[in-house]
Every structure is written in C-alpha cells, then in structure tokens.
C-alpha cells in the first residue's frame, strides 16, 4: 500500500502493543514530505438538514462556496451545491451518484432518523458513501474493509437502527448488506476518519468545526503520539486541484527506524482530556513519554477540565522536578542536544502562538536539499521564521526556571514555576508570560 506516493521513506511494520505502524526507512529531515494521500471516502460532517447559520461548502471538493455565479446545484435535488460544472460532473460519476442523491433525499424525509442524535445523521451519510464506494469502486471498498476497526457493544444500537433504516428506505442496488457489514463499516469509520476542518476565520471561542470527514488508507497507519514528530497539512480552500489530499511533513529530524507519529488532536490538551478522548474515540490508553511525565502530575493535582479540554489550575500546585525532560532528536543546527531537550521546548518551538490556534509548526519542504528556515502552521497557515521561533524558545531559560533558581531575576516568575504553569495546561499563557518575563528579567 505504501508505494508510489510515499516512495521509500516510510516502511509499514508491526510493533508489539501498537499494531501496524509507519517507521522511517531512512533518516528524515525537518519539513520533508513523507506522505501524500488521497481519500477513498469523503462525506459531509453536517446533519442532513444543515443549520442555516452554517457555511456552505461544495458537496464534492468541500471548498467554501462564495456568492459566485459559478455555484451549480444538483439537477436532481435542491439540497446539494457544487463550486462549478467540473465538480458536479465528477460527483455525479462518483460521490453523488443518482442513488446517493436519492438515498440522502429519502433519509432527509425520514422522521425516525431525526428523533435520533445528530451524530447518527452523519453516520448515515458515511454509510451511504461507503455503500456507494462498493458500487463505483469495488477495489477501494476492499481497501476500506481492510482497515482496522474496533467494535464495542455500546455501538450496537446505532448500527442496528441505521442498518434497518437504510435497508428499508434506500437499499443500495445490486449490493447485499448485512448488520455485520454495517457494524464493521461504522467501526472502521470511527477509528480511521480524519476531520477536514472549517477555516479558522469561522471559529468561535477557539473552537473549530469539522466540515467533512475523509478516510485516507495510507495515513490511517500513523499511530498517535502526544508530542508528534510529523503533522498533517491540508489545503482545502487554496489548492488548485486535488484539494482534499493530505500531506504529512516532518516537524523535526528523525533517524532511520524511528516510528513516525501524528497527534490525533491539538497538542495543547491536558493529560486527562487526552486520555479521555483516546479511550472514547480510539479505544486505547496512551503511554507516550509525555503522558508518562504528566501522569505523575495528575496524581497530585485537583484541576478541573473545562469543555475545551483545558484545566483550571490549582493555585497551590507544587513545583515539579527538573528531570521530566522529553527525549527528541534535535534538528541540524540546533544547539540543544537530545539529552537536554526540555519537555516544554516542543510547545515553544513547534506550537503556533496565534491566539486560539493551537496548531503545530513544521518547516516548509526543503528546496534543493536545503532545509527551509520558514515554519508553517498546519491550522491557521501562518508562516514564521525559524530564527524567530528559535529566539522565542531560548528566551525562556528552562533550566533556571525549572530548578527554581530565581536569584538572577529581579522578581519571581509570573504564575509561579514554568513547569507548574505547563502542568495546568495554560500553555499559551505560559509561553507569553515567560517570554515577556525572560526578555526583561534574565540577568
């Protein structure tokens, strides 16, 4: 499966306790593209009847629709819009076939579906897309079936309801479906679907919504790490073509044989919120190096998780020990060695400091084997110079602050101890306050 697009830079292996994984088959450089993948299934993340306040997207490529006269409606229904004749033609032959159009219209008129949670309307969209894939591309459907899926007894009611509904209201032509197949597909969607996000300009209170979900067969082999060494980029509204493709780039250098991991969610989430999401959405507990460190913090903290996954800090938190360092290979030219790489350094160097962004920074792809000095945020798209980020990181004297040595400072650090602040996961506030403090107070 990992052949054409990925070249020979990644190798699919089995890792005990982690299952299938992707490892570097050669030394990889920061910014290097290690995978480009196209989705075999893409479907809308909105309920069948979208809220009037929501933005409109092309039902084929999922670009945001403008008020342009190029917008074309589906000729068979009034519910689906396309950004132009080309997308309409492509969708009619694939994702929005006549059967899909008819099936979604029938489901939209089905009262029993609207008495269920909104999530089941989105699951119904996925099942229609998956069954349609079996009709228009049997080989891709087999790829979908080959992906990992984990079925939980708690998922049975939704699977039974949706199977009964689709079988009676809009059964796919010339395709025999069973409750076992429906349940298996829903399990694979839950573990493998990537969210295609709305533009950051549309976010409210720091929360971005998903515009669509896509299943990427090669990218599905990336395991999770709470301090990833690679991150995904998509260019839904800016790429001239193949805009739903996923591009995975290295955040920093890694040696041959190292597992390449993504973070399944923004890196700013605290330990409890990360573990809760991983258990509920993916069925596993994370034991990465960061979690091993932060698990010890959780044993003594009385933090309250809010709806955004961040915490309200306990004012009486104790100062953490200095030896909770994260091991990471430093990029060429970095003055910080592997053994000295502080746990908090990742957030200063590789997390976007734009308000409410929480994106991850990776260098632009190398040009003529020369590493780029410009880092790109995978959420807001902002570009930052490596020099700025490097200076920003080194303005914070981690060693002095983490050991509690404040004799060289004219006043105590704001909000107490740096690691204590990171422990509370007010990461962006910690970065801002500590950098401003370091600028004016380090002797």
UniProtKB/TrEMBL annotation:
<dbReference type="InterPro" id="IPR046341">
    <property type="entry name" value="SET_dom_sf"/>
</dbReference>
<dbReference type="InterPro" id="IPR001214">
    <property type="entry name" value="SET_dom"/>
</dbReference>
<dbReference type="InterPro" id="IPR044238">
    <property type="entry name" value="ASHR2-like"/>
</dbReference>
<protein>
    <recommendedName>
        <fullName>SET domain-containing protein</fullName>
    </recommendedName>
</protein>
<feature type="domain" description="SET">
    <location>
        <begin position="8"/>
        <end position="265"/>
    </location>
</feature>
<dbReference type="Pfam" id="PF00856">
    <property type="entry name" value="SET"/>
</dbReference>
């Amino acid at each position: 499966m990992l052949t054409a697009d990925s070249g020979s830079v990644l190798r699919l292996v089995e890792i005990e306790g982690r299952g299938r994984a992707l490892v570097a088959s050669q030394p990889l450089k920061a910014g290097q593209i290690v995978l480009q993948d196209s989705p075999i299934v893409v479907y809308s993340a909105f309920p069948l009847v979208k809220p009037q306040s929501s933005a409109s997207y092309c039902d084929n490529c999922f670009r945001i629709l403008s008020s342009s006269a190029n917008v074309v409606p589906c000729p068979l229904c009034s519910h689906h819009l396309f950004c132009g004749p080309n997308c309409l033609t492509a969708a009619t032959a694939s994702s929005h076939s006549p059967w899909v159009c008819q099936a979604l219209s029938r489901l939209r008129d089905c009262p029993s579906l609207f008495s269920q949670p909104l999530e089941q309307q989105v699951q119904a969209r996925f099942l229609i897309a998956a069954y349609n894939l079996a009709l228009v591309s049997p080989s891709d459907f087999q790829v979908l079936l080959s992906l990992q899926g984990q079925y939980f007894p708690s998922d049975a009611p939704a699977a039974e309801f949706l199977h009964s509904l689709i079988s009676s209201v809009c059964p796919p032509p010339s395709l025999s479906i069973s409750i076992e197949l429906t349940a298996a597909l829903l399990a694979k969607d839950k573990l493998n679907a990537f969210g295609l996000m709305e533009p950051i300009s549309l976010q409210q209170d720091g929360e971005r919504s998903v515009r669509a979900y896509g299943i990427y067969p090669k990218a599905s082999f990336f395991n999770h790490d709470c301090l990833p060494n690679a991150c995904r980029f998509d260019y839904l509204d800016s790429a001239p073509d193949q805009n739903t493709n996923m591009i995975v780039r290295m955040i920093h250098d890694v040696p041959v044989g190292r597992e390449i991991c993504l973070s399944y969610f923004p890196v700013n989430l605290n330990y409890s919120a990360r573990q809760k999401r991983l258990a509920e959405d993916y069925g596993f507990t994370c034991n990465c190096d960061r979690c091993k460190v932060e698990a010890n913090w959780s044993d003594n903290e009385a933090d309250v998780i809010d709806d955004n996954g961040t915490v309200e800090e306990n004012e009486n938190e104790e100062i953490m020990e200095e030896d909770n360092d994260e091991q990471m290979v430093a990029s060429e030219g970095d003055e910080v060695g592997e053994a000295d790489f502080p746990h908090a350094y990742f957030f200063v160097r590789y997390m976007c400091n734009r308000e409410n962004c929480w994106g991850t920074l990776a260098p632009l792809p190398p040009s003529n084997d020369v590493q780029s000095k410009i880092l790109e945020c995978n959420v807001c798209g902002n570009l930052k110079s490596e020099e700025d980020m490097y200076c920003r990181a080194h303005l914070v004297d981690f060693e002095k602050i983490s050991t509690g040595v404040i004799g060289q400072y004219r006043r105590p650090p704001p909000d107490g101890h740096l690691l204590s602040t990171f422990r509370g996961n007010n990461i962006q506030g910690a970065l801002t306050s500590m950098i401003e403090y370091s600028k004016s107070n380090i002797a």
